[in-house]
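New here. Your pick:
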Amino acid sequence: MIRIPTLADAPMQTKAYAYFRGCDFTTDPAEIDDTRSPDCLNMIADDAGFPVKRIGWRVVTTLGDKIHSMIFAHFAGVTNPCIVVHHGTKLTAYDFTANTSTVLSSGMANHDSAMFLHGGKLYTLDGSKFQRFYYDSGSYTSEEVKNVAKTPTTGVLGHYEAIGGGNYNWVPCEADEEPNLLSSSQINTLAGDAIHKNFWLTEHGATVTKVEQYLNDEWTEIADTNYSTSEDATLHKTKLTFTTAPAAHPDGAGIDNIRVTFTSTMNPADAAQIEKCCMATQYGYFNDNRFFVAGNPDKKHRDYACGVDDPTYWEKNQWTDIGSDQTAIMGYLHYGDVLAIIKEDDNQDAEVYIRSASVQSDQSVLFPVQQGVKGVGAISKHAFGSLRDDALFYAREGVFAIAGTDASQQRTVQNRSYFVDNKLRNEPKKDGACAAVWQNRFLLAFPDTGHCYVADARMQSGMNESFVYEWFYWENIHACRFLEFDGNLYFGTTDGKLCKFNDDLGSQLQYSDGLTRVATPIDTAERHNWENGVAIPARWTTRADAFGTFSHQKSLSKHGCTVMLRPYGQSTSSVYYSTESAYKQFVCDVDMTAWDFAELDFGNINFSSMDSPRIAAMHKKVKRFQTLQIIIQNENNEEPFGLYGIQLQYMVNNYIK
């Protein structure tokens, strides 16, 4: 008698999903690697590399109006550090220790801005004004930088030189510092000799505002009745004539002892060139540190460098035109000992340039710029970051890295976001994206959609410089600006909320989004100070798995199918499956709660206090499918969730007809 095999005779096979990595939105769900997910939401890799639910965030204060920029600041004379926020037309210092806010200015431009600190003072560029703020005598003070700008010494040691026979030649001032864009005021120094009354300045059209003479070890102002000025048509310079010939320097002739401050029609101030800028970075060589600014819409391809450690001094000729004047500078990236300058997309010209620093024989420092090759340009001015010295920026095509300091290399710009590029390309308003580096991760957020893409520096695929990161995908992160300092990550929103990620909270409040302060807390306990949080839906979905053969049907066994989950003080999850003909069918609920008195919920208690992994049987038979996906999710507020592995028992059935 011939025996026909039945389903029960088919050999049982095992499929395990472990060693998870990140999501993959680019490869077809049936073709991606077992370690990645085609539908992963609000997960991140823990220290051991397993996917866990991300932590949530809370609103620390509401300021109103769109947040344009933020900076961590500790003003000289102020006890507590603060976060300075430019929102709408206001500049506010938020003391996060005392939870108090102080408005520093109500006259800011409602525009993108940049801020930087120098000498205990805060400098702001909002596209309209260049201001600085500091704390003095118990209150904050502001001033426009052009009103306190450095007066450069443009000429030194103008003097007379004896040529014999009682005759002298006039030796003009030696050129010294460049004029300042912020101010038309300059200084020339001269050497008196008690013989000559006439001296010439370095420029014509000068209006002298002050003359000083070095007497008795100090500079003393000379009354304007003791000198006069005129224009010398022959030398084409302004002539300064004293009523009495100034004496020589006490230490001898030939030493400058006259200081003349003047303005000139030759070099009028042009402060607007700096005031219209709205982006800034710091770069230098050893002790030669300078701020570079850009963003002037009239000179969108130009950046400017201040004097050495002096943001009140912007030399007239210390600027650089970067590439074509048709495309704007979008941002800067520090990469090793060079500064990368990234421009917007250009159909013809290069978008990446490399600035370096070099010391000359006279110890001066130059900052040459090397043109890069044609590649991709940045699309947002706020989406830059260096992840473990991997200089990243967001372009229309994805996230890219500067792969070499030599800008002429053909492989200078390389894609780092392959696994999420398909989803990234569909994001609206790409120019509004912002980025930050936090806890060895690169975060790229879109304020309108609340989507956030996270690259993990510890998880890479590829070799040498040609690698891509593993990525995760979050929702409900409506960040328009990020600020990271001291391991804390804040973000601002378009409606003026200043938010902070909950990694500093000790309870499971960590796993809640949008927490707000309790108006009148009954005590200082964490749970009595924050409320109104919402759940963070988190899930991990396996690939659409054909289990090695797409020509046969398969069946999932009711026995031997398990999930291994991470235990927490309170945690649950739900398991589903999807096939080609049935979407998200319920399998079971799993309780991963480990008894933690700090998080004890008497409505959800299982009397287990072990913190070892939870292994739960699925007890669900699935008949005759072509492809299968397992979905494990948690959608409960204040509950963490983590996945260690999935193991399935299945049988291969007949051919698909």
